[in-house]
């Protein structure tokens, strides 16, 4: 219940200052912390996913590469998502920026560090394989078997058009699940449990989409993953790499635009609610309420929601003390009504 007192005339008194403790234990994360988290998450994703694809297949392991990618992605989101938003994929970063969830100034640094982390993850595997007396000479063949391709380099000979269509759809779906699971409405009830559920949802979706794509393109969706493997593979992988940038990014932009349009309708609804409250206040005839106290959006409870600078909204948008008012994971203080 709101602690604001509302006089009978309808004018709202100013709410006293309440708990404004920053999230993340009082710490905030700047650009360096966020990009480092993205690099580590990308490293973990490629080291685990490609490692299973190479060593799991050679040893007859029980876990498949798509499942490994999904599980590692979910784990990385839980471990590092509260710092950076848990992208670990250039397509997710671009889609989140288009949707208005991530500041554009973070897009290029995120993508660059995602590439660095992914390349380092595959490079470690390269070094390990080359150090083997019998397998070292076949290292490029091992890497090429995990690279993304189409046409004659598709596992089942799917042409360019089919690969392009599947990658666009998969990129859009993965981005949509990320944006939906990371929305404030999805994390408003119980932050810790909902964040874990969101990471699980994205991880499972990633695993399923990769399973569908393996026969077509060997499972792309993530341009950083495709680039890192192509660097250490045979020449054809770099020649076909363009598709595994264009298609996922296009799908992510489509999903981002859809979510942005949905968010705009919500903002419009809030503005209408604020205008309605202002009109009711004027109608009450209270001289002290002839001016609106604030132009901030008004929540359903009638309280004024804080305006925050959201730079990298993700799975760890924290509700302010369980009230449903959320704060971004970058440590911007919030308040409760």
UniProtKB/TrEMBL annotation:
Pfam families linked: MIP
Subcellular location: Cell membrane
Region described as Disordered: spans on this chain: 273-337
Compositional bias of kind Basic and acidic residues: 279-289
Listed SUPFAM superfamilies: Aquaporin-like (SSF81338)
Annotated family: Belongs to the MIP/aquaporin (TC 1.A.8) family.
Transcription regulation in keyword set: no
Membrane topology: Multi-pass membrane protein
Domain of life: Bacteria
TM regions (residue ranges): 36-55, 67-85, 106-129, 157-179, 199-221, 241-259
Keyword set, alphabetical order: Cell membrane, Membrane, Transmembrane, Transmembrane helix, Transport
InterPro entries found in the cross-reference section: Aquaporin-like, Aquaporin_transptr, MIP, MIP_CS
Record-given protein name: Aquaporin
């Amino acid at each position: 219940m709101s602690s604001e007192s509302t006089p009978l005339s309808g004018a709202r008194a100013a709410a006293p200052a309440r708990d404004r403790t920053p999230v993340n234990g009082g710490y905030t994360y700047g650009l360096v912390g966020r990009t480092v988290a993205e690099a580590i998450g990308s490293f973990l994703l490629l080291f685990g996913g490609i490692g299973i694809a190479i060593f799991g297949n050679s040893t007859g392991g029980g876990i498949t590469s798509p499942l490994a990618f999904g599980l590692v992605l979910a784990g990385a989101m839980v471990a590092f998502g509260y710092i950076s938003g848990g992208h670990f994929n250039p397509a997710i970063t671009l889609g989140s920026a288009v949707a208005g969830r991530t500041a554009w100034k973070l897009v290029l640094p995120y993508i660059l560090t995602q590439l660095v982390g992914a390349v380092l993850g595959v490079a470690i595997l390269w070094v390990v394989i080359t150090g083997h007396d019998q397998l070292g000479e076949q290292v490029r063949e091992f890497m090429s078997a995990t690279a993304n391709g189409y046409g004659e380099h598709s596992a089942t000979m799917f042409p360019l058009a089919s690969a392009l269509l599947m990658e666009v759809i998969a990129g859009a779906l993965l981005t949509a699940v990320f944006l939906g699971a990371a929305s404030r409405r999805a994390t408003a009830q119980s932050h810790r449990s909902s964040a874990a559920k969101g990471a699980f949802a994205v991880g499972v979706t990633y695993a399923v989409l990769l399973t569908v794509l393996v026969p077509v393109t060997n499972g792309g969706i993530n341009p950083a993953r495709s680039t890192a493997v192509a660097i250490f593979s045979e020449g054809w992988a770099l020649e076909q790499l363009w598709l595994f940038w264009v298609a996922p990014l296009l799908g992510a932009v489509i999903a981002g635009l859809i979510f942005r349009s949905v968010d705009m309708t919500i903002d419009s609804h809030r503005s209408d609610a604020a205008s309605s409250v202002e009109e009711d206040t004027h109608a009450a005839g209270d001289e002290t309420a002839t001016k609106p106290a604030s132009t901030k959006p008004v929540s359903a409870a009638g309280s004024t929601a804080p305006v925050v600078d959201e730079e990298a909204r993700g799975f760890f948008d924290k509700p302010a003390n369980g009230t449903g008012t959320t704060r971004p994971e970058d440590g911007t203080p919030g308040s409760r009504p």
